[in-house]
Amino acid sequence: MKSAQGISLKYIVILFFALLGNFYIFFLSSFDIPEKIPFTPVKTNGLIVFSIFMVAIIFLIKELIKLRPDFTVSHLTLYGVTVCLITEVFFQGFLWRIFPENTFHTFIVAVAKTSITFSILTFFTAFQLKTHNTPKLVMFIVILIAVTNILGYIFPTLLPNK
Fold it and tell me: Model pTM?
C-alpha cells in the first residue's frame, strides 16, 4: 500500500539527484553549455532547474490525486511545498559543504527564494490539476502579478532590479 509520505519521499530523492546531476553537468563537467539562452536574459541552468521542479511537482500532485482523490488543494500544495523545501535544504546543504566560502546567509536566502517561488507554482499546479478551473487560475495569476507589482512599487528594494 502506497502512502502520501512514501510518494513524497520518492520525489524528494528524485529531485535531489536531478539537481545534483544538473549541478555536475553545468558546473563540474567539461561540457560547453552557454550560460544564457542566446538573445535572451534567461540563464540555461535556471531554466533546467525550473523544468526539473515543475515536472516533479506535476507528477507528484497527479500521483497524490490518484492515491487520495479526497485531498484538497491545500493538502496537495502542502505536500508539494514540503517536497520542494526538503529537497532544496538538502541540495543547498550539499553545496554549502562543497563551497566553504558560502555563508549561512547564502544558504538561507537560496532556500527561502526557491521555496517561496515553488510554493506559489505548486499552488497553481495543484489548483489546476484538482479543479480544472482554468478561468479562476488565470484570475489568481493576474492577482499575483498585480500584488507583486504593487509591492514592488511601494517597496522598491523588495524586488531585484532588472
Answer: 0.87
